[in-house]
Amino acid sequence: MPTVKVRNLKNKEVGDVELSDAVFGAELNESLIHAAVINYQANGRQGTSATKTRGNVSGSGRKLWKQKGTGRARIASIRSPLWKGGGNVHGPQPRDWSYKMPKKMRRGALRSALSERLREGNLIIIDEFGFKSPKTSEFLGAIGGLGLSEDKKKATKTLIIDSLDNANLILSSRNVQKTKVTNSFGLNIYDIIYHEKLLISKAAVEELNALLDPKREIGGAEEAAQGKAETKAKKETKAKKEAKPETAKAPVKEAKPETVKASVEKAKPEAAKAPAEEAKQKGAKDSAKEAKPKTMKAPVKKMKTEENPAEAADNE
Question: Are strands 3-7 and 13-18 parallel, antiparallel or unpaired?
């Protein structure tokens, strides 16, 4: 792991800091840095440039002269691109130039650029950017003390990476040309390449070590997969625990009172209803017996009465 000396604003050594080898010890990858810079610039384009076609240009659509017989070139409209003041052909139109770049590639470009600045000796770690008041003169004096500018009025291209909560630092540096203040979360590849010197606070170094660590990318996917598996397992165990007591308790709670009370309550009406039902059945049988002979005797008598006159007629 590379070790770098920590300095204060008076350019005195205060201590040492160990930098992550994975973040500040990466190899130079020019093609990756170039791709990241092009992506950053493309995403920053407005894409509002536009030209007027023959349908947008003002002018009449009347045919100026007849097709034949004049000796001049044939023409249909004064808004033709061939004429002065006519429309433009294949000109730029509003569009979105932005495109996505993989997150691993962007982080790899940042690691490569930071490592190259460290090898060049253009990366300086400051203990703390502490200014008592927001004064540009104090800021220029601090930069001059660090040897970043030969003339105090003209500073070199300097990028300061610190917390944005440091209001005195932001206010004292905003009037200085070619100087920019950002935090570790807003760091981009273009700023690292454009600025010659990088001033990073000790707290920002720790944040960069955590943000740009390549293990974080691998570990993040593994942790996400583990988290999903754990949540699924927890849901399954909860479902099983909830299902078991429902199946076990339901028959126990319902069976005991029903079997005891129901047997007692049902036994009484059944015992009381038994003789009543037997009496009803006996009455039904008796009524059936009585009804049968009556129904049989009635037609017999009638038939006899009807047959007597017929037999008498035959006999006569």
Answer: antiparallel
**Dihedral of the alpha carbons of 202, 206, 211, 217, in degrees to the nearest 10:** 150
Predicted TM-score of the model (pTM):
0.62
Query: Using CA atoms, how far apart are residues 162 and 5, in angstroms rounded to an integer?
Result: 17
The whole-angstrom distance between residue 197's C-alpha and the CA centroid of its chain comes to 37
Cα torsion at 190, 193, 198, 201 (round to 10°)? 40
Q: How far is CA 220 from CA 24, 33, 224, 239, in A?
A: 21, 24, 6, 29
Q: CB atoms < 10 A from the CB of 235, how many?
A: 10
Long-range contacts of 151-160 (CB under 8 A, 24+ apart): 155/179, 156/196, 156/197, 157/194, 157/195, 157/196, 157/197, 158/195, 158/196, 158/197, 158/198, 158/199, 159/191, 159/192, 159/194, 159/195, 159/197, 159/198, 159/199, 160/129, 160/199, 160/200
CB 160 within 8 A of CB 40: no
* Integer Cα distance of 194 and 13 in angstroms: 27
DSSP 8-state code for residue 20:
P
Question: Given strand 13-18, what is the order of strands in its sheet?
Answer: 13-18, 3-7, 123-126, 197-201, 158-161, 179-182
Q: Helix, strand, or coil here: 41?
A: helix
Picking from 126, 128, 154, the residue whose alpha carbon sits closest to that of residue 140 is 154
Per-residue pLDDT 10s for the chain (316 aa) are 778 888 888 888 888 888 888 899 899 999 999 999 999 999 999 999 999 999 999 988 889 999 999 999 998 889 999 998 899 999 999 999 999 999 999 999 999 999 999 999 899 999 888 888 888 888 888 888 888 766 555 668 999 999 888 888 999 888 888 889 999 899 999 999 999 999 999 889 989 988 998 887 766 556 656 767 777 787 788 777 777 654 445 454 554 555 545 554 555 555 555 555 666 666 665 555 554 444 444 444 444 444 454 444 455 4
